[in-house]
Every structure is written in C-alpha cells, then in structure tokens.
C-alpha cells in the first residue's frame, strides 16, 4: 500500500492532520481561549468585587457629583453620613435627601453594571434556559405564575409576622428612606429590574448549580446563607437575637427561591 500523503484521504481513512482537525472542532479545542468567553466563575468574581469594592468607588463618584451640583452640601459632610448612616437622626433635611439620592443613584449604577457584565459572561447558560423554556413551555406556563404567587404571598405573610416581633433591618429601612426622598425611580431600576436577575444568576445558577454536583444539602445551605447574610452587613450585631430575627426573612426568601429554582429544573 502506498504511503498516505499529508493532507489527503485514501480508502483506509483520513490522514492524521484531518482527523486531528475534526477532533478539535468536535471538542471545541479549535476555538481560541478568551477571557471574554462565558464563565460562571468570572461572573461570581466580578459580583464579589463589585459588592466589596466597586460599589464603594461608584458611591464616592456619585457623592462628588451630587455635592458639586448642590452648593448647600459639602462633599465631606455627605460622604461622612454615607459612611455613618446612624448620623441621619441629627442630619438636616437636605443632607438626608442627599444621602438618599446618592445611595439610590449609586445602587442603580452598580446594579446596571452588574446586570450587563454578569449577563454577558452567563449568556450561554441563559440560552440553555431559553431552550429548556421553549421545550417545556406547557410546564412553565403554570409553574411560573404559581411560584410567583406562592413566593410573594408567603414572603409577605412571613414578613408581616416578623414585624410583630422585630423591627425591619437597616437594609430595608435604608431602601424605604431612599424611596421616600426622591430615589424611587433609581431604586426601581436597581431593586426591581436588575437585582432579581443578578442574584438569581449568581446565587442559584452559579453557586447552587456548582455545589449541587457535590451535595444537594450543601447547595441549599450555602446558596441561602450567601444570599441572606449580605443584606445584614449594615445591621449591628450588638444584640445577636435581634440580628438573627432580622435575618430570618432573608433566609426564608432564599429558601423559597432555591426550592423554586431546584423544582424548575434549574431554570431561572
């Protein structure tokens, strides 16, 4: 039998080079590795960096611009009250409004940035969810409205019961203050439009799905805790019992969301 020439086929089969190229195409190895490829890990890292660093820098920028546009407010006074919300009790009305507006705008910018970046890095996973939704649309047609009603109904009932026992968390009070002082539009974009999808992608699609491969119980525990605890970062721990009671509504919401995500076939 004559030798196989490079780049050619014969009766026996393809040459090594063509077989290699076909294998690379099949496994995706022919695609150039890029930091911009879809990645849950990159999305989670960006989320953590934004929560602990990025949002603070954004707030500083917003405070600087707002103080420049409001001559009656100084940057130092406004920035100090943003760092120490407990000073709001003795603050003047313009300063309270400044605190509310800068935090509301800062939250909106942070969540818009998070929304765009996380959506970009998790685009392929969203496409998979879309295909699953299209394939099982009859199931989701009743499942989504049912879960929506159950989640908000049970959450409202649980929060109503907890209000009889403990005051709302500082996080909730801060949101209400922003809404009451002109930040309703900005908070609507941040809290209603962007935050739910961002948190679903991070805490359920990334964290829950990753841990589920190892242990379903731990996937519930960690995704619930990681969702709930950041909501109480600004709440004092001087009274552990009060702190824990304020944490319960967030734990309950996280449990419901994790359960819904799991029962939906891991579709956000």
Q: What are its keywords?
A:
268 residues, mainly alpha, globular, 75% helix, protease, membrane, endopeptidase activity, single chain, 9 helices, CPBP family intramembrane metalloprotease
Q: What structural category arises from helix and sheet content? A: mainly alpha
**Which regions are unreliable across 5 or more consecutive residues at pLDDT < 50?**
4-14, 27-32
Number of domains: 1
Task: Assign an overall shape.
Answer: globular
Structure description:
It holds the Pfam family Rce1-like. This is CPBP family intramembrane metalloprotease. InterPro entries: CAAX_protease, Rce1/LyrA-like_dom. Keywords: Hydrolase, Membrane, Metalloprotease, Protease, Transmembrane, Transmembrane helix. By secondary structure, the chain is mainly α. It contains nine helices and no strands. α2 runs antiparallel to α7 and α3 crosses α4. The longest helix is centred in the last third of the chain and has 43 residues, at 170-212.
